[in-house]
Amino acid sequence: MSGALISINDVGLIVNVIGTLMVAFSIGKIPKGFGGTTTNDDGKVFHFSYVAHPILFKVGLVFIIFGFVLQLQRIKNELKAFFEGAIF
Question: Which of 16, 46, 63, 84 has its CA 20 to 30 A from that of 55?
Fold first, then answer.
């Protein structure tokens, strides 16, 4: 660490967590009359997920992608160290 209180990798991780929470909270109950179910051959009922807050869902996905981009340097360094230390 270069003396900074928080690094860009930490910011990327925080943005990823926030984005993941936003996506999770955007999924909600299926509204009445939606008919969001299907069945398989055995008769087991499966419920569809419903995006209750589409804006929150889209912003959460953008946060996840942005957080991943912020962490690319860290991922690159870890992969480089892994393959340099690997014995084949």
Answer: 46
